Structures are given as C-alpha cells and as structure tokens.
Amino acid sequence: MTELDAEDTKLVVLARGAMGRAEASSGAAGRDADGRTYAGAPVVLNALRLTALQAAVAAAVSSGATGLEAAVLVGGAADDPGVAAVHELSGEAKVIVTDRAGTPV
Questions:
Q1: Between the CA atoms of 74, 78, 79 and 82, what dihedral angle is there, to the nearest 10 degrees?
Q2: What is the pTM of this model?
Q3: Taking the C-alpha atoms of 96, 43, 15 and 2 in order, what is their torsion angle to the nearest 10 degrees?
Q4: What is the mean pLDDT of the chain?
Q5: 3-class secondary-structure state, position 98
Q6: Whole-number pLDDT of residue 3
C-alpha cells in the first residue's frame, strides 16, 4: 500500500465529499499548480455523461486552470476516461486511484 502525502490526502477528502453529496459510487478531485482544488462526481443526464474525474477536470478548466499537478479518483478504475483528460491538460500530472475508503489501489 502506498502512503499518500498530506496534499493528496486532502484530495481524497474532497473526492469522497463530492461522492457523498452526489450519492455516487465514485468521486474525484484535482489540484492545480496554484494549489486550487476542484472536485466532481459522475454526471448522468440524457444530454451529458461524465465520469467523476472528467467532471473534476471540467470544473478545473471552466475555472481557468491551465494544468493540474495531481488528481485523485475514489471508487473508480485506472482506465477511467478522465485519466486521459487529466493527461491532456497536464502530461506530467499524477493520477491516484483509490477504493471508496480512500486507500490507493
């Protein structure tokens, strides 16, 4: 098991909060180079479908972030399409996937 540093642990807390508020099976959060954070939960509408990580990336971009240094996906999988969105925005960004309790997998 990998230990998370304090900043990544904060992202887990934010992601779990988004997951809880949305009563969803996953949640995500990202941190930009300025330390601002963005959280998201899955969006499932007839006209729009986003994974939690895609929603967090969309929140970051729509708030003016030009890159992310890290992102956490709680309750998701490494093949989530949001991972590609994170890396499109920031090729060097780390993406941490955890179980629903916040333990890295």
A1: 50
A2: 0.95
A3: -20
A4: 96
A5: strand
A6: 84
Q: Which two tokens stand for residue 104?
A: 């890295």
- CA pair distance 77, 104, nearest whole angstrom: 11
CA trace torsion 36, 88, 43, 81 (10° rounding): -130
Say if CB 92 and CB 66 are below 8 A apart.
Answer: no
Distance set, CA 56 to CA 1, 9, 22 (Å):
25, 16, 13
Condensed to tens digits (0 to 9), the pLDDT of residues 81-104 reads 999 999 999 999 999 999 999 999
17 burial type by CB count under 10 A (0-12 exposed, 13-18 middle, 19+ buried): middle
Q: What whole-number distance in Å separates Cα of residue 27 and Cα of residue 94?
A: 16
DSSP secondary structure code for residue 93 in this structure: -
Tell me the CA distances in angstroms from 16 to 39, 75, 83, 101, one per residue in order.
Answer: 9, 9, 18, 8
